[in-house]
């Protein structure tokens, strides 16, 4: 019987590549996305398209009212920083405890599915410096997961949190995704797209995406060079 895995899917380059990797490892993939009050809907539409294109067995979108908490440029009325990649400190695009919350819900769904494997596309090389993308966080969460659930306490299986991209640069991620059939025209990365979903070209995510495609020697099917 094919093993099941839960894959956190935002609709961006990294999570889409992560879904493709899980599929290539012969997992039955169950994609999980969140409508968490983000200011722009384009990423959820992208997640739906990517899940369908990559043959996810199921795509669940959960609603989370993180906008009521605020504290981030992605959920609150705070300007998205532009042209600041590499500046010191954690940027205001950090959503408080987001990956902890997302992984906790993924853990609950995985237990119901009897899926011992959870995939998340965090990266600690080409990223904005978010604390919940670091290996030490993932290792700690995995330890917690194996203390907190009935299936593990009763000895039926142990959870594994897979982070196949964590030591990859963006160019390597893009090359890997392309080799596994990811249609990057379906993905969305921008933190501050316009009303038509066009990328700004200047936020951290756009800059990383543009740099990654250039270094991979591939053309980005989206125009991330900035709006005019």
Can you walk me through this structure?
By secondary structure, the protein is an alpha/beta fold. It has a single domain (4-216), classed as 3-Layer(aba) Sandwich (Rossmann fold). It is 36% helix and 11% strand. It is built from seven helices and five strands. The protein has helices at 13-24, 42-53, 98-113, 135-148, 150-153, 170-179, 204-216; strands spanning 4-8, 28-35, 58-63, 117-119, 160-162. Strands 3-2-1-4-5 form a five-stranded parallel sheet, sandwiched between helices. Helix 1 packs across helix 6 (170-179) and helix 6 packs across helix 7 (204-216). The longest helix is centred in the middle third of the chain and has 16 residues, at 98-113. It is globular and about 50 Å long. The termini are far apart. The mean pLDDT is 93.
* Mean pLDDT rating: 93
CATH superfamily: HUPs
Beta content: 5-15%
Distance between the termini: 52 Å
Strand arrangement within the widest β-sheet reads 3-2-1-4-5
Q: What radius of gyration results from the CA coordinates?
A: 17 Å
Low-pLDDT segments? none
CATH topology: Rossmann fold
What's the CATH class, please?
Alpha Beta
By DSSP (H or I, 4+ residues per run), the number of helices equals: 7
- How many beta-strand segments? 5
Oligomer: single chain
What is the number of independent domains? Answer: 1
* Structure classification: alpha/beta
Order of helices and strands: EHEHEHEHHEHH
